[in-house]
TrEMBL record:
Coiled coil location: none
Annotated organism of origin: Shouchella xiaoxiensis
TM segment ranges: 20-40, 52-74, 134-157, 163-180, 248-269, 281-301
Principal place of residence: membrane
Ranges of residues in domain ABC transmembrane type-1: 20-304
Membrane topology: Multi-pass membrane protein
Domain ABC transporter positions: 337-572
Protein name in the entry: ATP-binding cassette subfamily B protein
């Protein structure tokens, strides 16, 4: 049950001053809180003896007020330290969690659902935070405060009465042992179901246009209701287990009161205890109710925290699939880039997606990559970003092997425009400047002009300050692509990769963008993958891929002479542009 405290020991060591102050004051105030009951018992005995004078009553009242005020002030301090520590832990873990997501490679996200990651970064973090705050409080109250109360009851009142009154306590220990494991298992399952629900909501929101286009709102609504009901049922299962704690504690408390009052009355009747002592004892017995409830809360919080920490730690413990070079003195990534008999396969797949690829990319060259869908075009250009481990494959940057370079070194060389254009819910300006943070108006306008987006600015209500909405929902596909291209161009990278990034623009705009890139990027390298041959016909070398193998290569003119797949596609696409149906 207390495994989560061991898992969080690094944090308690780090914040030992804070927790030492909090726990020490919490224990001290537990002792202070015993004094009012003693004063009340003393007043009852003095009243019974007829010795309760005005001065004695005044003294007791003043002392009680001082004790109450001292308890209030001390409680403020320990609560601030203890619950402040819980917030510190949540912030630290959330920062680690986010940093881990930033470190991870695409292979990590391909195996995990976004909704589940969100659940781990929100609900699970809150459960762990509760462990470091309210969990420590219940631990101290369930163990230390209860121990102090029992010692006070046995030492100050009567050990026989105390032993009789706490005889039912082992019932709670038995229930805690049985139900604790059930809570851990069921809460883990509930959190996983909540993650699936999160993912479903994200998919529905992102795909709302498609859902409406196919009139599938009711079906999607029914699927959401089914997922939501599943989450509800799983949390109800957790609540059912938790609901056993309070009745058990109430029964134990009731038994303790019956035994305490009955046996206490017998001792008073036989003059072995005074009336004031039995009053004090019953006040202490009433104070014992919270520590008994705290046992149930302790089990609940610790098991929830343990289950959540396991889920979060599972994410934090994942290692990068692309290894980080041990040496920090590697040379910078440079040109030319050379693939030497390069073979690659995605992790966990059978067969190779690239086979025996030979390619030399010199500074200033434009390389076109074409082929059928699934032929390996995107796979090839992604190798330049070190997204996936390449094993013993030979990929060189200048004289440095790719595996000897850090990802940051490689990616400083590259500006990448992916097939799936990702825009943020910010203004057009902020999306274009995302990679650089700041740029001069001249650099910004140049990137906009080269990407041929300047012709669209006049149609946007607020120009560059227009908010694009969730993933650019207010823009057309072509506008999204050109903003993505401008975002890469403003970096002025040594290597620009356009991964089928002109598919949503018309032929005229495509030609304009290609011409602009040729004019502005003299002496810099460009790689273009495309399904339209017109996007690459100006390239210094064109590769035709077929199932990861280079089936044709050469310039546009040379490939037309070969009369292979490339020449056939050029002919077909040319006829389509002229309106001729094949």
């Amino acid at each position: 049950m207390f495994r989560v405290l061991t898992q969080l020991s690094w944090f308690f060591r780090e914040q030992k001053k804070r927790y030492l102050i909090a726990v020490s004051l919490l224990i001290f105030v537990s002792v202070v809180d015993l004094i009012p009951a003693l004063l009340i018992g003393e007043a009852v005995d003095a009243f019974q003896r007829g010795a309760l004078s005005a001065s004695l009553a005044g003294t007791l009242i003043v002392v009680m007020l001082i004790v109450i005020l001292a308890s209030y002030f001390i409680s403020y301090v320990w609560m601030r330290q203890l619950f402040g520590g819980a917030f510190v832990l949540e912030r630290k873990l959330r920062s680690r969690f986010m940093n881990q997501l930033f470190r991870m490679d695409p292979a990590f996200f391909e195996k995990r659902k976004t909704g589940d990651l969100l659940a781990r970064g929100t609900n699970d973090m809150k459960a762990i935070s509760m462990t470091a705050g309210f969990g420590i409080l219940t631990l101290i109250d369930a163990v230390v405060f209860m121990g102090i109360l029992l010692v006070a009851m046995a030492w100050l009142i009567d050990w026989r009465l105390t032993l009789a009154a706490v005889a039912p306590l082992p019932i709670i220990a038995l229930v805690v042992t049985v139900l604790g494991k059930m809570i851990h298992t069921r809460f883990s399952q509930a959190q996983e179901a909540f993650g699936d629900l999160n993912n479903r909501v994200l998919e529905s929101v992102a795909g709302m246009r498609v859902i409406r286009a196919f009139r599938s709102e009711r079906r999607d609504e029914a699927q959401f209701e089914a997922r939501s009901l599943d989450v509800y049922k799983r949390y109800i299962q957790v609540a059912r287990v938790e609901s056993f704690f309070d009745p058990v504690v109430n029964i134990v408390v009731g038994l303790s009161y019956v035994i305490g009052l009955g046996y206490g009355a017998y001792l008073v009747f036989n003059q072995q205890l005074t009336l004031g002592q039995i009053v004090t004892f019953n006040l202490y017995l009433g104070m014992l109710i919270w520590p008994m409830f705290a046992i149930g809360e302790l089990v609940n919080i610790m098991q929830r925290g343990s289950a959540s920490y396991d889920r979060v730690n599972e994410t934090l413990s994942v290692e990068k699939s692309v290894s980080v070079p041990s040496s920090e003195s590697n040379g910078l990534a440079d040109m030319p880039i050379a693939f030497n008999k390069f073979t690659f396969s995605y992790p966990g797949t059978n067969g190779n997606q690239l086979k025996d690829l030979d390619l030399l990319i010199s500074r200033g060259q434009t390389i076109g990559i074409v082929g059928k869908t699934g032929s390996g075009k995107s796979t090839l250009v992604k190798q330049l970003l070190k997204y996936y481990p390449t094993g013993d494959a030979q990929l060189f940057y200048g004289e440095s092997l790719s595996s000897d370079l850090h990802q940051e070194q490689v990616r400083r060389l590259v500006g990448y425009v992916p097939q799936d254009h990702v825009l943020f819910s910010r203004s057009v300006r902020e999306n274009i400047l995302f990679a650089v943070g700041k740029a001069s108006e001249r650099e910004l306008n140049q990137a906009i002009r080269v990407s041929a987006f300047d012709q669209d600015l006049s149609f946007l209500p607020d120009g560059l300050e227009t908010l694009v909405g969730e993933n650019g929902v207010s823009l057309s596909g072509g506008q999204k692509q050109r903003i993505s291209i401008a975002r890469a161009l403003v970096l002025n990278p040594e290597v620009l990769i356009l991964d089928d990034s002109l598919s949503a623009v018309d032929a005229k705009t495509e030609a304009k963008i290609v011409q602009n890139i040729q004019n502005e990027r003299v002496g810099k390298t460009t790689l273009i993958t495309s399904h339209r041959m017109s996007a690459v016909e100006h390239a210094d070398e064109i590769l035709v891929l077929d199932n990861g193998v280079v089936s044709e290569r050469g310039t546009h003119a040379e490939l037309l002479v070969q009369k292979g797949w490339y020449a056939e596609q050029v002919k077909n696409q040319s006829l389509k542009e002229k309106g001729v149906t094949l």
